[in-house]
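Re: weekly structure request thread

Next one in the queue (165 aa):
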Amino acid sequence: MSKMEQHLDATLEQILELARWAPSGDNTQPWRFEILDARRLVVHGHDTRDHCVYDLDGHPSQMSIGALLETMAIAASAHQLEMQATRHGEAPESRPTLTVEFTPAPLLEPDPLAAACLLNTSGQRRALSRRPLTAGRAIGAGGVAAAQATACTGWRAPGGARRRG
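Done, posted below.
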C-alpha cells in the first residue's frame, strides 16, 4: 500500500469515488484533486478550450466543475457532512482552483439523489487514481490537457496521418 493510500480517509475516498462520476463534456473530467487532510482538499480545474472543439469558450468545462461540486455535496450529505467550496480569487478563469471543506452536520439528512442516482451510476470510467499531484498537474494539469487534446480533437485520415479538427 502506498503512502497516499494509507492517508486517504475512508469517508473522503467514498465521496471522491462518487464525485468522479460527475458529468463532464466529452467525458474529460477537467479537474484533479489535491488532498490536504481528512476533510479538506483542493480541486484544480482546467478548461479544455484550447484543445477540444466542444469547449469553445471554457464554459462547458466550468459547468462540469459545477456539476462536480454539486455531486460532492450530494455524496457528502450521505455521511452527514456539509460541503463548503471557496474559489481562489487569484486563479485564472481557465484554471479554476477551489478549496473544498467538509464539516460535520449531524442534523443534515442525506440528499435523496445520493441513493437514487449516484449509487446507481454505470459507465466506463477507471477507478480513482491515487497518483500524487505534481506541480505541473496542480498548475492547470498541463500534461493531462495535452493528452486530452489528441483524444478530443485528433483523428486519423486515410493512410494513418494524424489530423486536427
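The first strand starts at residue 31 and ends at 37. The mean pLDDT is 77.
Next request, please.
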